[in-house]
Design goal:
mainly alpha
Length: 414
Amino acid sequence: MHQNSIALLIFLSTFVFGLIIYGIKLYKTPLNPLTFYLALDSGLRVILSCSLIFFTDTEQNFNDADIVDALLLHLLYVSCFALPFILRPRWLLRAVDTIRRAFFLSMPRSKTPFSVLTLFVIIAFICFNFFMLMIAGDGGMLWITDPREAYQNYKFGAGNYYLFWVWSISFFTIYVLYSTKARTKKDVLKISPLFLVIFVLTYFTGSKQIFFVNILLILFYYTHYIKLISVKFFTVIGLTLFGLFLGLQLLQGTTSNLIGALSYFDYFQKSIEFVAQYNNIGPTYGDSFISSFWGYVPRSFAPDKPLIYGQLMIQDFLYPGAAEVGYYPAFASWTFLYLDFWVFGVIISGFFVGGLSWALYELFRRNSDDIFLFSMAAQAAITIYMVPLHGELYIFFWFILQRIILNIHFKRTR
């Protein structure tokens, strides 16, 4: 019944696995943008999600042709994403580095020593965004008493504050690691009390992902500045974190069994539904992209801000009224521009995210003695908040804010 889609899924899995191995051999660590992104985005969100269709009872019977179409689109996306890592275009590297320097996003390690004042400013920024989230999102004290409930129901009206809040927690981790110049295991243990503070903060985000991101940031620093962690050990760490992630879902009552926990990764199933009905909604020729700029405006500043904009147009078509009750399903990475520009949007998505990820990581490898390159490389390799031609503006603003925060101590040092 699904012979073609199963065969294509096997081919996609083999292709993605080959690229993952290529990335590990190229960079000597799995914590590189090519390997990590493909393992997460394609491995869990696509291959695992699609496999569940064949091995579990789903509420919807997916047509084989629709699954094939969605898999082909993802295969195209992966190919475009991986191409910069294979071709390694120097012109792109120079262009990204020129833009970075033009906005003064450069600071040598010698000028970023550990500063209590800087740490205080970062903590103040964390508290400010948390306070604004409590007010603007109407979650109030629920963010303290029941963070999971607040995360699920009270962050969408103040997504700007939530995003900068969780990013500032990660920046806390990055700054502590980089400024203390940890070079040995003992150095890392000395600053471990600060990491405990960070992990406590992640509890109040209500998101399991933020907790794991900060663990991965510590591993990212360790493997690039202290000692290269073996692939075998990384495999053990990966399986442990994945098992812990599933276990947390069971403990939180999100699901009652293993299959239900795995069903958390249903991104691709939603994407198949979208592809199957694409002719009824797209292409929108830029309407989705233009409307997505509403995402930068807090609802507290614009009460008349539309509820449906950007990628939410997909959700509203597939699940009318879902946004009103707080249901926001996730879709594959390429669906945002696919809605606007059909296959060409998928190609743009792949090249843009792959090219930017490769350039930022490559610049870091060539000059690891710069906190901004370290932060950008970690952003490209781990956090991956990259929605093509939309989310990057948030990232740009965030790095400008980092520069302002660090500039306080930079001036005192100079």
